[in-house]
């Protein structure tokens, strides 16, 4: 019974002498394991390198697309008149009440929040009317539309010591009057929760007003 037990043990735990055929095999086994180790290390290094390249690519892609902060475009989208009075070439004057729709086109992958601002309309470089509008937010990749009403009057031309009044006479003769609209938004673009950048958006639009048809014929923005 005891003898049987010892036999079983020998089979389960074979003696090292039985399988170890000398020093040579031991050495080659060590070399093999070293090589295996080296291979594993190289493989790991290759993985790390591939990951770094991949990560760099992702960062470059993000910084050139999603994270890139673009200046929002600010312009007059359309305008129509509520009241329209215009003088003659000999007695040049105008008095308009205009409703305009402004657009803030935000192409960023983040909201654009801007503060209160004003828009000034010029005739021949002289201010002829202005409107103030409240700050708002343009959602990411959207165009925020704002409506303003503004009174435009040639009264200030008489006060300005320039040739603008005679210029206005010429324009009334030609049937087209050009006004320039300028504004500046101060705000911030927020891309993700942490990344934020100040951005101002400038408007510089020219409106060509047809006096016969009392409409804004053309709007050109820089
Ligand atoms: C606005 O645009 C006109 C051209 O339409 C240009 O002559 C003028 O200098 C611009 N003004 C500003 C303030 O950018």
Automatic annotation (TrEMBL):
It comes from the Eukaryota. The keyword Transmembrane applies. The keyword Membrane applies. Residues 1-35 are annotated as: Disordered. The lineage of its organism: Eukaryota, Viridiplantae, Streptophyta, Embryophyta, Tracheophyta. Its main location: membrane. Residues 1-10 have a biased composition (Basic and acidic residues). This is Late embryogenesis abundant protein LEA-2 subgroup domain-containing protein. It is found in: Membrane. The chain crosses the membrane at residues 45-67. One of its GO terms (cellular component) is membrane. It comes from Cinchona calisaya. Keywords: Membrane, Transmembrane, Transmembrane helix.
């Amino acid at each position: 019974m005891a003898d049987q037990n010892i036999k079983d043990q020998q089979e389960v735990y074979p003696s090292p002498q039985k399988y170890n055929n000398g020093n040579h095999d031991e050495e080659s086994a060590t070399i093999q394991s070293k090589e295996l180790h080296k291979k594993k290390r190289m493989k790991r290094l290759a993985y790390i390198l591939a990951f770094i390249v991949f990560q760099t690519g992702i960062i470059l892609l993000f910084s050139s697309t999603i994270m890139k902060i673009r200046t929002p475009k600010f312009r007059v989208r359309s305008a129509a008149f509520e009241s329209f009075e215009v003088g003659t070439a000999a007695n040049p004057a105008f008095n308009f009440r205009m409703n305009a729709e402004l657009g803030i086109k935000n192409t960023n992958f983040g909201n654009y929040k801007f503060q209160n601002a004003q828009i000034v309309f010029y005739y021949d470089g002289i201010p002829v009317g202005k409107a103030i509008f409240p700050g708002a937010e343009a959602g990411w990749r959207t165009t925020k539309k704002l409506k303003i009403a503004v009174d435009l009057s040639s009264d200030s031309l008489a006060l300005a010591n320039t040739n603008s009044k005679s210029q206005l006479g010429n324009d009334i003769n030609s049937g087209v009057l050009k006004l320039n609209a300028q504004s500046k938004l101060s705000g911030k673009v927020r891309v993700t929760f942490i990344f934020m950048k100040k951005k101002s958006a400038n408007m510089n639009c020219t409106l060509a007003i047809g006096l016969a048809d009392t409409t804004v014929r053309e709007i050109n923005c820089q």
